[in-house]
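To: structure desk
From: M.T.
Subject: fold request, one chain
Message: Could you run this one when you get a chance? Sequence is below, nothing fancy, just the single chain.
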Amino acid sequence: MSAADEILDIVDEDDRVVGRAPRGEVYARGLRHRAVFVLARDAEDRVFVHRRTPGKLIFPSLYDMFVGGVVGAGESYDEAALREAEEELGVSGLPRPVPLFTFLYESPDGTGSWWSRVYEARCTLPVHPQVEEVAWHDFLPAAELERRLGPGPDAWEWVPDGLAAYGRLRALRA
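Reply: Done. Structure tokens follow.
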């Protein structure tokens, strides 16, 4: 089964399930669904950062400071956070990610929205990211991550939903 065929729950403005559809249709029609974002830190408190592969359905080849993805039909946010973190990091036995907050992300171009739950997890295991999902990765110290966020000549192009989640996380911790 391809990623586009995965069945997702469609949700309303209050995050209640109102239907189901394949991921490809959800993206094409801009249907509201659910997603998880997991900020993974290593033993030295560095943040896992990666560049998405060019074949991703949305935001191909952009950088992200979260691992995660869509919540499957009938799956809980917590189940999806652990599954996605282990899949993308290429680990097994990761401690359950800790939920931090939930928000509704709406794309600036109006093409989609998704209820987004943000988590944090400590990953002290050696990572082996999925080659289908991750083109490049590293654990970055906070100062390096901030430098790459820009502005400036060293800034990277980031996924917009990850930037929105990270901005909210920084505000929460300020």
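Reply (cont.): The chain has four helices and nine strands. Let me know if you need anything else for the meeting.
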